[in-house]
Design goal:
two-stranded antiparallel ribbon; 3 helices; 59% helix; Uncharacterised_PrgI; PrgI domain protein
């Protein structure tokens, strides 16, 4: 009986395959998904177009500063004293 208990796990590790993966890999994947990985994974995307838009805006601002074409904003009306 003891021999069966010792040989059965060895036989399973040698012969079992699921989707072309050996039992060690299958067990590792199960442990990773059940215990190690976070339970809730929020859906996030990296929008490439927003990054490109920000880069274009920054380049435009830098070129305007380099050329000296910055817009000066004035707050309110100016009155002459005198």
């Amino acid at each position: 009986m003891a021999m069966i208990a010792v040989m059965l796990p060895c036989f399973l590790f040698a012969m079992y395959e699921k989707h072309g993966q050996p039992l060690e890999v299958v067990i590792k994947n199960i442990i990773q998904t059940k215990f190690i990985a976070p339970k809730e994974r929020p859906y996030r995307t990296d929008n490439l177009y927003s990054v490109l838009e920000r880069q274009r805006k920054l380049e435009k601002e830098v070129s305007a500063i380099a050329k000296g074409n910055t817009k000066k904003q004035r707050g309110g009306k100016r009155t002459r004293k005198g």
